[in-house]
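Researcher: I'd like a candidate sequence for this fold, 380 residues long. If you have to choose between options at a position, lean toward the conservative one.
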């Protein structure tokens, strides 16, 4: 079943980044079915262009009728970037689209080889508004919204396969680490850091891995686009603030699969971070699609007052707190109250599992499902 994605294609050449399984190839094939399509995951293409990147020019000239050239998984052969740059100069009428599920090799070799001629776009997991009536928040909290998983007959099994194929094997295939056992222990350990401030020293002790190696593993997750650290909001700070960033996997289903659980685990220990992560992935999609100038932060004072997310951009300033309970207590508003005292102009929003929308002490309280369907309605 095909769903219309909330994605606007640029008028010029662009990179389309995103983790494996998020639908990059699908949307391009559906939208540009007459394009010249080169899939570098195919062994023959990989061998050909790895050995002779200059052959790309011959391939393009052999298809003069093709105005759009799509190169899938460009990070597999980063040397093609120089050839693409040359072709952009000599064939200005053509549009080049390059997808990538890893930024590691491209950062190393430099996407600036294209001289800023290609925009950078991102493909995210499904959003609630894309799914419409198919969106069920409980299912999203348990299995996430990765397209390749969402349409699977067995989402639990699909998520397990995703971890093995798109995480561990991707790491091995790219030669990013020599010790997959250490990396697997690290994945389990860092799953407890989802939606939390990340402490590399603690993870290092738990995994019995050097701190420097742990830092490199976190960088690998970010380069593979499956995790992100967000910084503390410090603009015109009036208080002593925490310094460690928060950590999130790109999809709640991935977090739930990696996070060990058992009879002694309380639902709030898993369900709370899951909801916060689900809100985070929707905010990332919203910013990329509608407010590219905006960034996502969090706010935490050294005394412990915290706001889960701060969205800050040219015409956007909003503080968002996420609570997995349907019943709110006065202390649930403490972080937003403190933030409002320091930043009076910021919108303050509390997202919760209840059913009613209301305002309390200047804070807009919104049911989670309602917020996920249209974040812009509340933060702008």
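Model: Candidate sequence:
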């Amino acid at each position: 079943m095909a769903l219309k994605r909330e994605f606007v294609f640029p008028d010029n050449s662009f990179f389309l980044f995103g983790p494996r399984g998020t639908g990059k190839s699908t949307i391009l094939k559906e939208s540009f079915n007459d394009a010249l399509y080169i899939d570098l995951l195919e062994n023959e293409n990989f061998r050909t262009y790895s050995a002779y990147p200059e052959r790309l020019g011959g391939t393009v000239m052999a298809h003069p009728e093709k105005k759009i050239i799509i190169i899938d998984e460009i990070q597999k052969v980063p040397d093609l970037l120089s050839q693409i740059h040359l072709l952009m100069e000599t064939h200005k009428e053509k549009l080049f689209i390059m997808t990538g599920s890893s930024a590691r090799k491209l950062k190393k070799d430099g996407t600036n080889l294209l001289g800023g001629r290609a925009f950078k776009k991102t493909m995210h997991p499904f959003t609630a508004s894309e799914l419409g009536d198919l969106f069920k928040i409980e299912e999203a909290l348990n299995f996430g919204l990765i397209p390749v998983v969402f349409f699977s007959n067995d989402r639990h099994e699909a998520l397990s396969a995703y971890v093995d194929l798109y995480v561990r094997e991707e790491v091995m295939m790219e030669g990013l680490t020599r010790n997959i056992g250490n990396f697997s222990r690290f994945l389990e350990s860092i799953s407890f850091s989802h939606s939390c401030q990340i402490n590399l020293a603690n993870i290092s002790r738990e995994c019995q891995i050097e701190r420097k190696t742990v830092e490199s593993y976190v960088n690998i997750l970010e380069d593979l686009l499956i995790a992100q650290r967000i910084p503390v909001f410090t603009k015109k700070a009036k208080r002593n603030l925490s310094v460690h960033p928060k950590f999130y996997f790109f999809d709640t289903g991935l977090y739930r699969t990696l996070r060990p659980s058992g009879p002694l685990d309380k639902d709030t220990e898993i369900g709370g971070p899951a909801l916060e992560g689900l809100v985070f992935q929707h905010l990332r999609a919203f910013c990329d699609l509608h407010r590219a100038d905006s960034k996502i932060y969090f706010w935490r004072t050294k005394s412990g007052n915290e706001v889960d997310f701060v969205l800050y951009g040219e015409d956007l300033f909003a503080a968002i707190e996420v609570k997995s309970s349907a019943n709110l207590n006065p202390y649930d508003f403490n972080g937003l109250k403190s933030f409002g005292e320091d930043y009076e102009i910021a919108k303050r929003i509390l997202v919760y599992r209840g059913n009613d929308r209301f305002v309390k002490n200047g804070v807009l309280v919104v049911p989670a499902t309602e917020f996920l369907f249209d974040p812009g309605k509340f933060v702008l």
